[in-house]
Amino acid sequence: MSATDATQTPAQGRPDQIKAVPVRHPGRWVAGAIILLIAVALIRSIATNPRFQWGVVGDNLFATPVEEGVVKTLELTFLAMVIGVALGILLALMRLSANPLVSWASWIYIWLFRGTPVLVQILFWYNVAAIYPKITLGTPFLHANANDLITPFMAGLLALGLNEGAYMSEIVRAGIISVDEGQSEAAQALGMSRLMTMRRVVLPQAMRVIVPPTGNETISMLKTSSLVSVITVPELLFSVQQIYSRTYQTIPLLIVASIWYLAMTSVLSVGQYYLERRFGRGSSRNLPETPIQRLRRIVLPTHRRPDVAESSQERR
Amino acid sequence: MSTPMVQAEGVHKSFADNEVLKGITLKVEPKEVMCLLGPSGSGKSTFLRCINHLERIDAGRLSVDGELVGYRQQGDKIYELRESEVARKRAEIGMVFQRFNLFPHMTAAGNVVEAPVRVKKINKKEARTEAERLLTRVGLADKFDAYPSQLSGGQQQRVAIARALAMHPKLMLFDEPTSALDPELVGEVLEVMRQLAESGMTMVVVTHEIGFAREVGDTAVFMDGGVVVESGPPKEVFANPQHERTRAFLSKVL
Question: How far is CA B102 from CA A79, B201, B229, in A?
Answer without folding.
Answer: 36, 22, 34
